[in-house]
Amino acid sequence: MTISLFSQAVLRRISDTHNVVSQWWDLADILIVKYDDGFINIPTTAEEAGYPEWWLKEVGYDKGPISYKRPT
User: Fold this and answer.
1) CA 16 to CA 14: how far, in whole Å?
2) Residues 7-37: pLDDT tens digits?
3) I need a labelling partner for 9 at 20 to 30 A (CA). Which of 26, 55, 67, 68 fits?
């Protein structure tokens, strides 16, 4: 019994779709492990994430937030 060309194409698309979904889940796992707890964990462990000092000074955020007033 032979499968029609259309059926073969459908089966290939289904297989491709499963592969893409699997790769997206793999990426999600990698990102969760890498950025867990606000740190960058790949290639080193617990490297602080954030902006460089020069950038914080340039935008006036070198001392952190200076106002905690809720915007109206």
Assistant:
1) 5
2) 999 999 999 999 999 999 999 999 998 888 8
3) 26
